[in-house]
Amino acid sequence: MTRTEQLLAELIALPSVNPAFLPPRHPQAGEKDAAEFLAATAARAGLEVEFQKVLPGRANLLARLRPRGRIKQTILLAPHLDTVGADGTQFIPQRRHGRLHGRGACDTKGSVAAMLGALCELAKLKTRPLETEIIFAGLIDEEHAQAGSRALVASGFKADLAIVGEPTKLHVVTAHKGCLWLQLETCGRAAHGATPQLGKNAVHEMARIVCALETDYAAQLKKKKHRLLGTGTVNVGQISGGTQPNIVPASCRIAIDRRTLPGETEAGVRREIAALLRAKKLSAQISSTKLASALPLETNSKLPLVQNFLRAAGQSRPVGVDYFCDAAVLAAGGTPSVVFGPGDIAQAHTADEWISLAELERGKNLLLNFLKSLS
Ligand SMILES: [Zn+2]
């Protein structure tokens, strides 16, 4: 068993489910046990360890390798420590046919093991970088509200490059979509079901809006293509309205998920939808439902450090992904960010999450080679 595999297996056995997905004070909730275990691992390798308090009982773990000389640049390795929920058996790591199964195996404890593993190995070498400081940040709360990355940015932290750990199959990702949740509400007038002509049916109005979103608006979005991401999307994911069959409904609500491209903003999306409704002579109130919308990511792949990392990963060009992550938060805070890690997003959040052990080891080696190449 390699050290990386050992580290990952131990991490899987320490549940760190995001508390947003569990009842209060649940034993599997929170990143604390995983963070403390990693802090001890990092300290043993000679890294400087620090906790950054974010929420009650929840802190980002920062483990730092100082250069031999003066700090000229900083590299951040930033996977997240929280996972989605799982049944109890998923916290028992299982090795089968070259794969390690368990909650968090790829999302993103695999990246944690590869990144911290690489940094610990580098710390033990005599040839640590001369002028590059490297910081591992085990972030909390990525799966819910990204409180960990937001707190890091709010503290004024900046780096010259962040490598955010997510299962990208070891592809270097420089762009991802953002995510916006909006609620639309139609307002009608209640009346007796026997005399619907005396009321105004809010469900009927909403039905026309749903239709306009899924046809006209979806078609409009298909016209705008991003080089790495394709097009934005819209999904009407929830609907509720009316009280009982014999009452003309006075209100109806839908919730939509809009995946945005770099350059698109919440204000712009609201304007688009409002214009569509006006053109169709429909009317609804539009409001936000998410705590904070997830921003899209677009990092300039021509930046020298991004080019260096692409070279180290043996790739000539970066790729884009549909899902959002902490990278956009860090990028908005002024740190050029890419996404990279072992594992496939197809296995994330599933009942049988796993990672290829060969890929895990390749990821660790690739990161180590990149870090060793820095001056
Ligand atoms: Zn996830």
What does this structure look like?
The protein has 375 residues and is of the alpha/beta class. It folds into 2 domains: 3-176 and 297-372, Zn peptidases (Aminopeptidase), CATH 3.40.630.10; 178-288, Alpha-Beta Plaits, CATH 3.30.70. It is 30% helix and 23% strand. It has 9 helices and 16 strands. It has helices spanning 3-12, 32-44, 109-124, 147-154, 202-222, 266-279, 304-312, 326-332, 357-372, and strands spanning 48-55, 58-65, 73-78, 94-96, 99-101, 132-138, 161-164, 173-176, 178-187, 233-241, 251-260, 285-288, 297-298, 319-321, 337-339, 354-356. Strand 1 (48-55) and strand 2 form a beta hairpin. Helix 1 packs across helix 3 (109-124), helix 3 (109-124) crosses helix 9 and helix 4 runs parallel beside helix 8. It is elongated. The mean pLDDT is 96. Residues 107, 143, 348-349 line the site of zinc ion.
Strand content: 15-25%
CATH A-level architecture of the largest domain: 3-Layer(aba) Sandwich
Structural class: alpha/beta
Order of strands, main sheet, comes to 1-2-6-3-7-15
How far apart are the first and last residues' alpha carbons, in Å?
Answer: 31 Å
> Mean pLDDT, rounded to whole units?
96
- How many discrete structural domains? 2
Give the ordered list of helices and strands: HHEEEEEHEHEEEHEEHEEHEHEEH
Q: What is the approximate shape?
A: elongated
List segments where confidence is low: pLDDT < 50 over at least 5 consecutive residues.
Answer: none
Distinct small-molecule ligands in the complex: zinc ion
The number of distinct β-strands equals 16
Determine the CATH superfamily of the largest domain: Zn peptidases
Q: For this structure, what is the CATH class of the largest domain?
A: Alpha Beta
Discrete helix count: 9
Global Rg: 23 Å
